[in-house]
């Protein structure tokens, strides 16, 4: 910067009354704003040092500012979002297919972690149940195939709303004429 003449604190007021402070260094050519993430006290200390330098016979002043805190939190936020996205990308996709012609049901679960196929004859199906799970202040549901051996096989491992599960079970029962 050539020939700084003064430094002052610019106070900005947000729409909800929040305040931020920014140091402005005035030169004959241009005003130079510095980073605004510091508190008022830190900006005031920096302004006093800068004005003392301007009014002294010193030939240099080293000023360093960084946004490492913001970059850290931004990077951390991006990593968390990526982890959540990776979780949803690797959760399995389930396809349940009933074949009347070969008298079998196939439940196929595909995910990035691998594929799983569950196969049972239709005559081994005793009934269809709806399991419920309490989640915070609501209930979630999933359809389950109950075999004659009383083994329960969830059609979809994820729980969802009751209406869509009841609709799916009614469509299966209608298709199988049970």
What's the arrangement of secondary structure elements?
Blueprint: E1 6-13, E2 19-26, E3 31-33, H1 40-55, H2 68-90, E4 93-99, E5 104-111, E6 114-121, E7 125-135, E8 138-147, E9 152-154, H3 162-176
Antiparallel strand pairs: 1-2, 2-3, 4-5, 5-6, 7-8, 8-9
Shape: rod-shaped
How would you classify the helix and strand content by structural class?
A: alpha+beta
Computed Rg: 33 Å
Strand content: 35-45%
Uncertain stretches of 5 or more adjacent residues: none
Largest sheet: 3 strands, antiparallel
Figure out the total of helices.
3
Instruction: Tally the beta strands.
Output: 9
* Helix share bin: 25-40%
The helix/strand order is EEEHHEEEEEEH
Task: Quote the average pLDDT.
Answer: 85
**Strand order in the sheet with the most strands:** 1-2-3
Essential attributes:
single chain; 178 residues; alpha+beta; three-stranded antiparallel sheet
Describe what you observe in this structure.
The structure is a single chain. The protein is 30% helix and 37% strand. The protein has three helices and nine strands; from the N terminus they run βββααββββββα. The strands form three sheets. It has a three-stranded antiparallel β-sheet, covered by helices on one side. Strands 4-5-6 form a three-stranded antiparallel β-sheet, with no helix packed on it. Strand 8 and strand 9 form a beta hairpin.
């Amino acid at each position: 910067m050539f020939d700084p003449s003064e430094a002052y604190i610019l106070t900005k007021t947000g729409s909800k009354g929040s305040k931020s402070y920014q140091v402005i260094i005035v030169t004959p050519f241009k005003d130079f704003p510095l980073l605004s993430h510091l508190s008022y006290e830190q900006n005031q200390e920096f302004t006093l040092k800068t004005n003392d330098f301007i009014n002294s016979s010193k030939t240099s002043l080293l000023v360093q500012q960084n946004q490492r805190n913001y970059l850290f939190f931004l990077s951390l936020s991006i990593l968390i979002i990526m982890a959540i996205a990776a979780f949803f990308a690797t959760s399995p996709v389930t396809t349940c297919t009933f074949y009347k012609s070969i008298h079998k049901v196939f439940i196929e679960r595909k995910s990035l972690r691998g594929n799983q196929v569950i196969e049972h004859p239709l005559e081994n199906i005793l009934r269809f149940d709806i399991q419920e799970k309490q989640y915070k202040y609501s209930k979630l549901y999933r359809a389950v195939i109950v075999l004659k051996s009383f083994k329960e096989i969830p059609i979809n491992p994820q729980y969802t709303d009751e209406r869509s599960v009841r609709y799916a079970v009614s469509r299966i029962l209608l298709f199988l004429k049970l």
